[in-house]
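Write out the 3D structure for:
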Amino acid sequence: MQALAIEDGMEIIRQTIAEARAKYHVQKLGITGYCMGGIFALRAACEIPELSAAAPFYGDIPEENVLKNLTVPTLFIAGERDKWINPAKVNTLKEAARKYDLPVEVVSYDADHAFFNDTRPEVYDAEAAADAWRRVLDLFRKHLAVAVTTGAA
């Protein structure tokens, strides 16, 4: 998990946003990620206010001095039986959300780390994964929708 430095990962995300805007003229962008990708998705929500929504899955929680800058609507997904991103770590996110009035919703399932990964039957939880994905899509629909003008009067 330490193979990609936080600063390098954040720069890759910034470059990707710039390229998507330049090449595809995208107005609103969201980010999601799992495990290490969840670390970067949550961190991006704290450091890149140009994002419109974030949905990190069981990524580690950044330090409070980073977390307090979260301005992007965020849905954080966790597993209550996760021994790495455990309930104590998730509680630090909840506490920071209350303390700084952060736009984050935390949803925890009675599931293990990587419960969304259907290639790992020992941890995959189809019911939790389906509900989590429904919530992610709801978040993205709400915050990534773009008004389209039809030209009709």
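Strands lie at 30-34, 53-57, 74-79, 104-109.
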